[in-house]
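Hello, quick one for you while I still have it in my head. Could you read through the record and tell me how the tokens relate to the sequence? No rush at all, and the record is pasted right below.
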Amino acid sequence: MKTVRVKIDLKDLTQLPKGRINRKQLDATTEIELASQQASDDAEAMQDAAKFARRVRKRLGLTQEEFSLRIEVPLNTIRNWEQGKRCPTGAAKALLKVLDKSPESALLALG
């Protein structure tokens, strides 16, 4: 892949591509609107994580209870993940990724 380096002088705004930023709208945006958008983005990311956890479990053909027993995670945690109340992090997130990519190997390793 070819890397192209571009230097932009922020004092000369004519160098910026047209249509990329609406400066009037950006300047008119309030902190409350920014916080609201961030909350919306966070909620959407949480729902994406919930869908992913649910998809992995269903792909394995397991109920929530069976899934919690197989991966040794409390049932309430599984429910919270799938309802979007909590987001899997750290080792749990890595385990879900492995279960998604190579379910047979992961389940065999879990015993």
Remarks:
- The chain has one domain: 25-110.
- The longest helix spans residues 31-60.
- The CA atoms of residues 99 and 107 lie 7 Å apart.
- The radius of gyration is 22 Å.
